[in-house]
Structures are given as C-alpha cells and as structure tokens.
Design goal:
Length: 215
C-alpha cells in the first residue's frame, strides 16, 4: 500500500500538522498513523490521519461549539426555533459545516457549501419562504451550493429524480433522468433502463414503441 505523504504545515479544516507521533495504544495498529496538530484556537490535539482526511476531525472541538453557539444566538432573535423551515435550514447547515454529521461526507466533505447570505436564518426565510408540507430543500444543480437561484422546495419524488447518480439522457435539447423520460414518453422505466443498458442510441431508446403498445 502506498504511504500517504503528510508534511508539517499541511491543513485539515482548522488543524495544522505539526509532526507525526507514535500511537498511545499498547497494541498499535500498523495501518493507523497519528499526528500532533495545532488548532486555529491555539490548542493541540493528536488525531488519526484517516479521520483528518475524511473530515471527521477538523478541529480540537471548537468548530462544533462555535457552530452551536452561532445557531443559538440566531434562534434567540427570530422565534422560529422548532418550525419545519428552521429545521430544514439547520439540517442544511449541519451537513455542510459539521464534520461529525452523518451526511457530511456527501455535502461539506465533497465541497458543497451554504452561501454566506444564508448564514442568517432570516435571509434564508426571505429567499425561500416557509417550507411547504411534504417538501424538503433541494439543489437544482446537484453539484452546486446551497444558494438563491440553485435551491427550491421539492417533493421526495422530485428529489429522487435529481440525485447525482441518476442516469441522464438528452434528446432534442431536453435533459431528464430515466424516470422523467418514462413519464414524458409513456414507456415504462424498466423498458428505458433495459434499452440504455443494452447500448441503444438515445433517440431509439425514447422513440421506439414498446412491444406491449404495438397492436
């Protein structure tokens, strides 16, 4: 296995590498490496390299405290704490800013950020409005950030059709996922997917009638 190169001065979140250190465990695992790190707040910690690389450890603990304190200050002013809209805003920020959030690696861990304007809940509410029942916040461009112009309130079905691992087909200037093309053409999803997997050209996939429809 190729040894990962880490140098003093390398940054991981708020942490800066000082030097590599031995494990404190009586039975150290050979594949685990530990580093002494200096946090931006001045404290030092020893962190495992794998945790640094995936963003699980991004500070000495001050990042989580700072995010919590900031949210606490804001919630005290607008009286929206506990509302569906506030919960969506809070969840959005947690998965982008908090390395300890279970979904962080799919959002903040891959570079998705919340725009500075939406650091304040009042701005988010003004731009997005109240959260409609049965809907959640969705990014139109799945690789884009949470910001005005790239977000909408969407149903679970709409979100499922907007996942970044969906297969997208472009035909006559329109690009949709397979499920959306099934709705638009009247073909079944299974038929379109089977044709796609078989390597059919897009035009043939979407314009060839299914056998069941031929009488």
């Amino acid at each position: 296995m190729k040894r990962i190169v880490v140098n003093p001065g390398d940054n991981f979140g708020r942490l800066t590498i000082v030097e590599e250190v031995d494990s404190h465990s009586k039975r150290p695992k050979r594949w685990k490496r530990y580093f002494l790190c200096q946090c931006e707040c001045g404290k030092t910690i020893i962190a495992e390299l794998s945790h640094l690389r995936i963003g699980h450890t991004a500070s000495c603990g001050c990042l989580k405290r700072d995010v919590g304190a900031r949210i606490g200050r804001m919630t005290a002013t607008h009286g929206q704490t506990g509302t569906p809209t506030f919960k969506s805003w809070d969840t959005m920020r947690q998965r982008c800013n908090n390395p300890n959030d279970k979904k962080y690696r799919h959002y903040g861990g891959r570079g998705i950020v919340v725009c500075e304007r939406w650091s304040d809940f009042e701005n988010f509410l003004a731009d997005m409005g109240e959260k409609p029942d049965g809907m959640t916040i969705d990014r139109i461009d799945n690789d884009g950030n949470y910001e005005p112009g790239n977000c909408r309130w969407a149903t679970l079905v709409q979100q499922a059709r907007n996942k970044r691992n969906n297969v997208m087909l472009t035909y006559q200037g329109n690009t949709f996922c397979l499920a959306e093309w099934a709705v638009r053409t009247g073909l079944t999803y299974r038929t379109i997917h089977s044709r796609y997997k078989s390597g059919w050209p897009t035009a043939r996939i979407l314009t060839t009638p299914s056998r069941r429809s031929i009488t």
